[in-house]
Amino acid sequence: MNLSVLRRSLILRLVGISLLLLLIVQAAGFAVVRASIERNARSQIARALDTDENVWRRLLDQNAEKLRQGSALLAADYGFRSAINSDDEETIQSVLENHGNRIGAAVTALLGTNLELRAASLSDDMLDFPATLRQVVPPLAAQPQGSQVAMMAGVPYQFVMVPMRAPVVIGWVLMGFPIGQPLAEEMRRLLSVQVAVVVQAADGSVSVPVTTLSAPALASLHRQGLPLVELKTGEGTLLAREAPLGNAGNEVKTLLLRSVDEVVAPYQQLQVLLAIITVAGVLLFAVGTGLVAQRLTTPLRSLLAATQRLSRGEYGVPLGHTDRKDEIGNLARSFDRMRLDIGSQQAEIRRLAYWDRLTGLPNRERFREAVVHAIDAQVGDALRPLTVLTLDLDRFKHVNDVLGYAFGDRLLQAVAERLQKQVPGDSDMVARLGGNEFAMLLLRTDAKGAHAVAQRITQSFEEPLAFEDQTVDLSAGMGFACWPADAEDADTLLSRSEIAMYAAKRKLSGALRYDESLDSASALTLSLLTELRRAVEHDELRLYLQPKVPLHGQGGLAAEALVRWQHPRRGLVPPMEFIPFAEQTGFVRQLTLWMFEETARLLADPRTAAMPLRISVNLSTRDLLDPELHTRLGAILARHGVQASAFCLEITESAIMDDPLRAEAMLNRLSEQGFKLSIDDFGTGYSSLAYLKRLPVDELKIDKSFVMGMESGEDDAMIVRSTIDLAHNLGLTVVAEGVENLAILDRLRALSCDEAQGYHISRPLGAEDFLVWQARQLTASSA
After folding, report:
1. Where's the EAL domain (predicted)?
2. Same domain, 397 and 513
3. What is the pTM (predicted TM-score) of this model?
4. What pLDDT digit, counting tens, does each position of 638-653 carry?
5. What is the pLDDT of residue 63?
6. Fewest CB atoms within 10 Å of the CB: 107, 500, 501, 581?
C-alpha cells in the first residue's frame, strides 16, 4: 500500500473513531438533558397546577361567599321582609331583581319554609330553573354554608342559599351566578393557565361551554374526551388537571391546562447554545485530533517504510526520529536496534548458508549458484567450455576413527589450502561440498585442461601431511564433467561430476571423466527402491528354505531361510539383483524383519510346531549395528509364541569387522536371548580369528568357494579340514555350503563336518514344498 494512502487512512481512522466516541457521548448527554428537562418541566407544571387548582377553588369560594353575603343582606333587609309579609308578588320580584343586579347575581329566588319557589328573578332562557331548583336546594338546605353547581341553559351556575329568620325561619333566599368566560379569563390573566369548563353528558359526549383554549386545542379536547391527563395538539402538549365543581350530578368539571412547550422553551434556548458549543467543540476536537494523529503517523510512516526496507533486505539505512524523548522515540530506537541486530544476523546467516565454517571455502549451495551463474553468463555469446571437478578423500573415516575428529578437521583445512593453490585462474572456485568431498569450478577449461588440473592435484597429494608427530598420506578419487558436452544445466553437471568421481573411487583409477555408461543403471536403481517398498507392502516377497542335512545321524532338522521376489511383471527376481542394492540403501533392515516375521510364522504353524526344526536367518552389517535389533526380534518372537532357540542367526565376517565393539555387544545380547549364532562365509575374511574366541558364536559356516574347490585342489581341502578342526577345538559345530555332488558330500562326512547344504541335497524350496520334502525325508529315514 502507498505510504501516503496509508497515512491518510490511519489519520482518518483516528479522527473518525475519536469524533464518533465524542458524538456518542454528546448524544447521550443531550438525551439525558432532554429527558431531565422534560421530567423537570412536567414536575414544575404539576406543582403549578396544584396552585392553579387551589386558586380556582378559591375564586369559586370567593364568588360563593359574595353571593352568600348578598343573600344574607337581602334576607335581613327590612323592606324585603315587609314585602314578603305583604305577599306582594310584584314587590318581591322587584326587590329580588334589584338586589341581584347590585351584587351581580344572575339568579335570585325566594323559597318558602317548605323550600318551594315563591318568586324568582330569571332571564327568559332559564326555562329549566325548576328542575335545577330541585337539584341544588336539598344539598344547600342540608349545608347552608356550602355552594352547589348546576347546569342551566347549557351554562354552569354556582348557587348559595341562606335562611330568613324572624326569629324563626320564614323562608330562604337563593342566589346564583354563572361560571362563565370572565372567570376563566381572570384565571388566565392571573396565572397564565388555560381553563376549560367541561360538561359530560350521560351518554359520554362532552361539551365545553367555557374555555380559554384555542380552536385547535379545543378540537383536540373533543377528540380525546375525558378523563384527560395530557392533551396533544398541533401547537404542543398541554398537561391537564381535572378539578370537580361539586355539582350534584358530577357532570361539570374544570380542566386546568398548562403548556409543556412554554416551560421547556427557555431550556430549548439553552440546548441550542449547548449544541453550538458542542459543534464548535467537535470541530476543535477534530482539528486537535488530526494534528495529534499526524504527529503520531509521521514517525509511524517512517517506521513502516523502514520495515519495508527490512523486508527487502536493506539493513544499511538508519531510522529517523530516534532523537525523540517520548514513546515514539523509544519505539524508533528499538526498531533501529532491531535493524542492526537483524542485519548482523542476516550477514551471519548468509555466511553460514554459503560458506563452510571449517575451511572458509564456499559450500555446496554457493558453489551451485556459481555454476548456474557461469552457465547463464554464456547464453548468447560464443560458448566457452567449463568443467566441474569433484574429489573425495580416501580413508578419511579411518583418520577420524584413529586420530580423532580434531585431527580430521585440520586435515580438511590443509587439503583446502592445497586445492586453492591448484586452481588455474582467479575466477575459478574451490568449494567444500560436505564431509571430505570438495569440488572445483574451472572456467574456460575443457576435458584436457581438467585432466591437467587433476594431475597437479594428484602430485600435490604425493607429499604427506605432517601434524605434530602424525603423518598422513593423501589420496582421492576424482571425477569431472564438462559443459556443454556432458550436461546442459548446472544440477546435471554437478550430479554427473559426482557420478564420475564415485566411479573413479570404485575403479581405483585417476581422474575419470563422466560417461553415460557410468550411470546407465541410475534410473533402474531409483525405481528399484520404490518397487522394493511396494513389494513388502503388496506381499510380493516369498520365503524359500534350503535344507541342511546332518552328516553323522544327529537329531533335528535345519534349513536356511532365503528370500525371493515374485515381481508382477518380471517374474521371479533372483536375490543377487536386489539384495546388494538393499544392503547399500539400508532397506535390508526391512527385508531382515520381513524374513524373521515369515520364519516365525512358519515355526508357529501347527505342521512345524512338533518338528525339531531350526531355521537360519542372515543378518547384514546394518542389522548388526542397529541398537534396537534384539528388541525388534524379541517382539516378533512374543507375537508368534516362538522360542529363540529355533533360530540360527548367520553373520558374515565383514559385518563383524566393520565395527567390532558394537557387533560384539549386539551378539552378546542376541546370545543371551537364546539365539544360536553362526559365522557365515568363514575363511573369506582376514581378521575374524582374533575375535572368534571372544564372540558367543555356536557355529562356523565354511564358504562354498572352498567346499566346491575340494574336488580340484588339495589346498581348498586343507582349508576345509583345518577349519573343521579349529571349530571343533573351540566347541563349535561346522556347516559346509555349496555341496554340488555326492563326492563332496562323502569327503565332508569323512572330515567330520557336522552339517551340509547345497544343490546336491536340495535347491531352495517354497515353504509348502519344504514341508513336503521334510515329510518325504522322514518317511525315507523311518523305512
Report:
1. 525-778
2. yes
3. 0.43
4. 999 999 999 999 988 7
5. 79
6. 581
